[in-house]
């Protein structure tokens, strides 16, 4: 039974940076995908970025060049470095882990970017 724990959210000014961290516990095999979704008020949850076990990455168009995803397979951790943050990035960010054919979710961490 996998569990997901997130940290690193907070409030920053536009142009600032945050680093989100996520650790998966109780994982019995290497997750195929680890990544991040976000959900802003009044909007549907969207995929922000993910990384496969082999290192391949995906970013949604709006964060390309600003966000960097990375993972440590030995620790079953994934990170999201967010630079040049914009107010439009304000959302609850959810870590997800795709392992053994199932998806596991963190509880979410709030990111607030003010002008």
How would you summarize the topology of this molecule?
Blueprint lengths: L2 E5 L2 E4 L4 E8 L7 E7 L6 E7 L4 E3 L7 E6 L4 E6 L8 E9 L2 E4 L3 E6 L1
Parallel strand pairs: 2-11
Antiparallel strand pairs: 1-3, 3-8, 4-5, 4-9, 5-6, 7-8, 9-10, 9-11
Short description:
The protein is mainly β and 115 residues long. Helix content is 0%, strand content 57%. It has strands spanning 3-7, 10-13, 18-25, 33-39, 46-52, 57-59, 67-72, 77-82, 91-99, 102-105, 109-114.
Outline the low-pLDDT stretches.
none
Q: How many distinct helices?
A: 0
In N-to-C order, the SSE pattern is EEEEEEEEEEE
Count the E strands. Answer: 11
Approximately what portion of the residues adopt beta-strand conformation? over 45%
Overall average pLDDT:
96
Please summarize the sheet with the most strands: 7 strands, mixed
> Kindly, what is the distance between the CA atoms of the first and last residues, rounded to a whole number of angstroms?
41 Å
Quick tags:
115 residues; seven-stranded mixed beta sheet; four-stranded antiparallel beta sheet; mainly beta
Describe the protein in words.
Helices cover 0% and strands 57% of the residues. It is globular. By secondary structure, the protein is mostly beta strands. A hairpin with a 2-residue loop joins β9 (91-99) and β10 (102-105).
């Amino acid at each position: 039974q996998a569990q997901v724990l997130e940290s690193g959210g907070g409030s920053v000014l536009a142009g600032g940076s945050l680093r989100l961290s996520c650790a998966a516990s109780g994982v019995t095999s290497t997750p195929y995908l680890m990544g991040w979704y976000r959900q802003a008020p009044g909007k549907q949850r969207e995929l922000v970025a993910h990384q496969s076990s082999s290192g391949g990455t995906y970013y949604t168009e709006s964060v390309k060049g600003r966000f960097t995803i990375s993972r440590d397979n030995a620790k079953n951790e994934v990170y999201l470095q967010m630079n040049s943050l914009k107010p439009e990035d304000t959302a609850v960010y959810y870590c997800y882990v795709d392992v053994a054919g199932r998806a596991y979710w963190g509880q979410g961490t709030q990111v607030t970017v003010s002008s």
